[in-house]
Each structure stands twice: as C-alpha cells, then as structure tokens.
Amino acid sequence: MNSFLETLKQLGPGRLAIMSGVLLALLIFFIFVSMRVSTGKMDLLYDNLSSVDSTAMTAKLGENAIPFEVSQDGSSIRVPESEVGRARMILAAEGLPGGGSMGYELFDQQSGFGTTNFVQNINQVRALEGELARTIGSLDTVRSARVHLVLPQRELFSRDSRPASASVFLSLRPGAHLDREQILAIQSLVASAVPQLKPETVSLIDSNGNLLARGDSDTESLLTVKAEEMRRSYETRMTNAIEDIVGRVVGYGRVRANVTADLNFDRISTNEEMYDPSGQVLRSTQTTEETNTEREPPSGDVSVQNNLPGIAGDFLVDPKPVQESSKLEEVANYEISKTVRSMIREVGEVKKLSVAVLVDGNYVTDEEGNKTYQPRSQEELDRIAALVRSAIGYEEDRGDTLEIVNMQFADVEAEDADLKAALLFGFERGDVLDAAEILIVAVMIILVVLLVLQPMVGRLLSSDDPSLDSEFEAELLAGGPAKPALEGPSEFEQGSGQGGESEESLIDMQQVEGKVKASSVKKIADIVDTYPQETVSVLRNWMSQES
Predict the structure, then answer these.
(1) Buried b (16+ CB within 10 A) or exposed e, 55-65
(2) Strand, helix or coil at 383?
(3) Burial 490-499, CB ≥16 within 10 A → b, else e
(4) pLDDT tens digits, one per residue of 394-432
(5) Any residues with CB less than 8 A from the CB of 266 and at least 6 apart, and which?
(6) Are 40 and 71 in contact (CB under 8 A)?
(7) Which of 51, 172, 276, 351 sits CB 3.0–4.6 Å from 337 for a disulfide?
(8) Which of 338, 194, 325 is nearest to 278 (CA)?
(9) b/e for 315-345, b at 16 or more Cβ within 10 A?
C-alpha cells in the first residue's frame, strides 16, 4: 500500500489529473455501451400520436425508468421489447393515449359548484367534439381528426332557429384515400351524434386542403362523383379478372391489362300496356226474356146503363182482338288479353369496352445457363384472346375492342437478385445495422485499451527516480566528473584488474543488461541542444580520461 502511494506521489498532480480524466471518460463510455447493449431490440409502443399525448407518455415512461425512443416528428414511441406490456399497462392506468382531445372526462375534472350554464354548454360541445374526433381518428385510413360543431341556441321569443352545422378536419395516413362511401359514412356518423344536424350540413377537408364534402345538398355533384367511382371500380374488377386468368397460364407478373369502360348512367323507367285482339275470352253471359199480352176495350155508346155492374156483355158490340208481344235479349262479355310491363333500367350499363393486354414471351435456357427470349406463337395468343373475351363478357355487336400484344418484359429476376444482394447475406437492413453498431463499439473499446490506456499507464508508472535525474543534470552542467551511464574501460580495469580480452567483452553493448528509459535519452538530447559548449567539454574530459 505504501509503495502504491509513493508511486502516486511520484506521478505528480498533472499526471494524476490526466489519468483521472481518462478513467472517468472510459467509465462513462463503458456505462453507455452496457446500457446500449442491455437495452435490446426496441419495439413500437404507440404510433400516430399527437404532441400532447407524446409529451405526457414520455414523462410517464421516464418516471417508471422505462427506456424509450421518440421519432423525429414525435408521433411514435419505441420501448424495449420486454417492456412493451408493462409500459402499456402503466399508460392505460393514466388514460393515455387520450387521442389528443378531451371527451366526456372533461366533466370529471371540474366541480359543479360555481359553474354557470354558459360554461356547462361550452364544455358539452367540447366533450362532444372530442368524442367524435376520437371515433373518427380510430379509422384505419385516418391518422387524427378534429371536429368543430356549430349548435345555435334558439333566442327567446323567436320563431325561427338556425340549423346546426359541423366541420371535420382529417389528417390521413401516408398514401391513404377516402372513397365516396367512407366520406358519406363520416357525415352520417357526425350527424347521428348531434341533435338536429343533417348529413348535408357536414363539411370535410383533409390535411392537403382538399375539399372532400361541401356540406350542402349538391345532389348533382354527388351523382357525378358516384358515377366516376363506379366506372373506376368496374375497370379495376375487369383488369384483375384478366390478369388473374391469364397469369395462371403465362405466370403471375408476366401479364398486364388495362380496361377502359364506357358506361351509361341514364336511369330509364318504361311502362308498357299491350293488347292481343286474337286472344278473346268469354267472361260472362246475360239473357233477358220479356212477354206482354194486351186486350183492347169494347166499343159502343157510353151510358150509365153500360157502366152499371151486372150488365151482361150482350150489350157490348164489336169486341177487339188480344195483342201479345215477347222480347229476348242476350249479352255476352269478352276479355281481350293485355300485358302491362313496368321496367326501370338502372345506371351503369356497359356501352363499350376497350381492353389492352400485354403478355411476356417465353425464356429458353441454354447449356451455359444463359436465357434467350422467344416470342409466343400466334396460336397461343389466340387462345389467350379467347380467355380474355370470356372473362370480360366481350360483345362484338356492342363495339368492344380487344388488343393483345406480346412483348418482352423487364428482367424482374435480375431486379430481385439486386434486392436480395442489397439485404447483405439475406439479413434485413435493420439487423445488419444493429450488428454493425455492436461491432464498431467493440472495435472502439479494443482500440481505446490498446492505443490509449495501456501506453499512458505504462508511461506514467515507469518513471525514473527524479533525484537521480536532477543530480545527473547538475553534474553535466558543471562539467565535472560524473558517473557515466555505462562504465568506461579505465573504471573496469580498476575494478577488475583483468586483461584486454575481458575489457573488450565488458564494453560490448549486446552484453549490457537492463533497459534505458526513453525519457532519459530525450532529456540528455534536450540538454545537449540547450548547452552545446558544456556538452563538448564533458565529452573532451571523458576522452582525456580514456587516453
């Protein structure tokens, strides 16, 4: 222990400060490396976070000593793979992530005492906006959303009230797109959650400034957009059908198709009523028969005697004959066959199809492994054309056109080989970077130990006695006799008394044992450069003694 303390005293304060700084830097470096290595692979904790949620979540992770990494835009947080479950449980207990907006929990953070009706109404609107924003933000294509509601209050003693309206701002995910059905779904969602709000009064806009929904009842524009989406959907379906059925023959990825459809979006309603005169059918028959008998009164003088009862008919003269009549009427009802047709022709009827199909050829490999392109035969192209006609419902009377071209595709296999080569021995880029990082850290540690730490400690611990160096320097400067580093011949003769043969062996440098410190040699060189005259006198003194 004493020798160690003596060694530290001989090093001096400057060398001790340098050694302490180097040791402290190495300690910090080793701690950083150990933490970096022990952290392990970082896994995604949450993505598409708002700045408010990201700040609160990182603070909570720091309180629980969970390492984390935040992306440059602050929208995603990564933690060690082993800490994902624990981190999510801790954040869920705190209600994080909250979606960047406050919902009905806004009422949990305030007391009911001293709150005016106006403040309660404002908080109700804020809570409703926050809940709608969370719901819309949970869609797959939406990163975040903000909802603004306008709910006018009916004034006192007023009959008319302004309708409610809403505005929705959407931040979509990269490459995402909302079709018309999704836009209508968002409008319906907002309108159903707000009293007296109609879907036509809900406007939508995305983060790029594109107007997705105007917020008024513009039915014509809606029909136009719907017709365009229907046409694109039909073309995509036909294209996929062609590539699927032809790809099974020539190989997937070796056929490309493009379909252009001309659709009829006229909605036609037709009512027809047709009669068939030759198709008479007896429906009913009605027969009426009438019989009538009449006798004319007798002729004669009109007197009281003739009109008295009991008078015999002898007094009647010239009786008239009896009149009889009969009538027979028959009515037959017939029905004529009638056809009533009501037909509604919906939109989307195909008027014409234009189809273009590009097919790759065959490749033949020779004995040396080289591939040679060979175009397909006309017979094979005709078979492919027949398949395409059947797949799309080709009708020549309708004016459909079909063009099949056989051309050489780009070398897809070469591109795949380049992609695999870019993976570096089949590993993904992230794994290669992690391995390279660990390798670089290990090499840096070895270099620091070999090139910095070991030479520095060796130089600091192998110093000579400073009292001897100062005494030797003083004797050189005085020009007097000094003890030489290597004894001369005269001194060996006085000490040993042996002949010349032994003298030659004693001054041989190869038989000198021990080491000469480099710092001592440097000190002597510095003294010679500083005091050349004194050095010359000392050397002359040594030479005179040898002679």
Answers:
(1) ebbbebbeeee
(2) helix
(3) eebeeeeeee
(4) 999 989 999 999 998 877 566 555 555 555 555 666 667
(5) 345, 347
(6) no
(7) 276
(8) 338
(9) eeeeeeeeeeeeeeeeeeeeeeeeeeeeeee
- Averaged pLDDT score across all residues of the chain: 75
Question: What is the separation, in whole angstroms, between the first and last Cα of the chain?
Answer: 50
Residue 239, classed as helix, strand or coil, is helix
What angle, 0 to 180 degrees and rounded to 10, lies between the N-to-C axes of helices 117-137 and 180-193?
A: 150
Nearest alpha-carbon partner for 459 in 529, 520, 527? 520
* Pair 330, 285: CB distance under 8 Å: yes
Supply 424's token pair. Answer: 């570096």
How far is 161 from 153, CA to CA, in rounded Å?
8
Residue 359 tokens read as: 């097919």
Q: What is the pLDDT of residues 490-547, one digit of tens each?
A: 443 444 444 444 443 343 444 444 455 566 777 788 888 888 888 888 887 777 776 5
pLDDT tier for residue 258 given thresholds of 50, 70 and 90: very high
Q: Phi, psi (5° rounding) for residue 265?
A: -105, 20
**Residue whose structure tokens are 């950083």:** 32
pLDDT at 428: 62
Q: 361 burial class (0-12, 13-18, 19+ CB within 10 angstroms)?
A: middle
User: Is-above-0.70 flag for pTM?
Assistant: no
* Among 267, 266, 244, 264, CA closest to 256: 244
Please give the helix or strand (H or E) that residue 521 lies within, else none: helix 518-530
Residues 385 and 102: their CA atoms lie apart, in Å, by 60
pLDDT digits (tens, 9 = 90+) for 114-124: 677 777 888 88
